Amino acid sequence: MKTEHIKITDIVAQENDLSRAADILRAGGLVVFPTETVYGLGGDATRDEAAKKIYAAKGRPSDNPLIIHIAEPSEAELYAKTHELYYKLAKAFMPGPLTLVLKSKGVVCKEAVCGGETLAVRIPEHKGCQQLLKAVNEPIVAPSANLSKHTSPVTAEHVYSDLNGKISLILDGGKCQGGIESTVLDVTGNIPRILRAGLVTKEMIEKVREVEKARGVVTYGV
Fold it and tell me: Hey, how many other C-beta atoms are within 10 angstroms of the C-beta on 175?
């Protein structure tokens, strides 16, 4: 497979490039895209074959669930069981580097969630990623765009060195600003738990907790 590399420096002028990337995703192919944290390796979240390709390209264990990326907080209702705390956190940190784990509605393919009952949801802030999500009009399932156990990529060149020949297209949006993955917060229980530390810190999250004391959300565990 030949991997194409396209710089997306002008999102509006390059609408055709983003449409082509969306077509690749809808056909079950893989597209790498920039976010505000690191580059993501994306596939159609509703297709088992796309998730299988992601695991194979990365050499990632197939029992490690993937995160879905959506454009707006309300879209999560299509795929997961949302609640008041989800929307409080979404208002505070989304779009941005926070991933929330919710109870799944079973719409996202089983391969992506490893047959589990939960779903990790993220809304990236990067404009290029936002435009891609709107163009494909489907959730994109994506881990970081690197070989398993390699450093997460913040440049398209890093992605190319790891995944050339394994993916269809790299959308190059320049260097990612964050440099580390999103914070993953499990909000399926009464006490939210940080499963992966990231740019949204425990202290930042606990400021939202003060609004949620009536729900019994008092402490955050790791």
Answer: 14
DSSP bridge pairs for 4:
169
Instruction: Give CA–CA dist 67/50, Å, rounded.
Output: 13
Cα 78 to Cα 49, 105, 123, 139, 216: the distances in Å are 21, 8, 14, 10, 27
Q: How far is Cα 201 from Cα 68, in angstroms, rounded to an integer?
A: 21
Mean pLDDT of 186-212: 84
Q: Which amino acid is at 16?
A: N
Are residues 176 and 40 in contact, defined by beta-carbon separation less than 8 angstroms? no
Task: Summarize pLDDT for 168-179 with one digit per residue, the tens.
Answer: 999 999 999 999
The model scores a pTM over 0.85: yes
State the pLDDT at residue 207: 84
Rg (CA), the chain: 17
pLDDT at res. 213: 54
Among residues 51, 49, 108, which one has the least CA distance to residue 78?
Answer: 108
Bridge-based pairing state of the strands 169-172 and 31-33: parallel
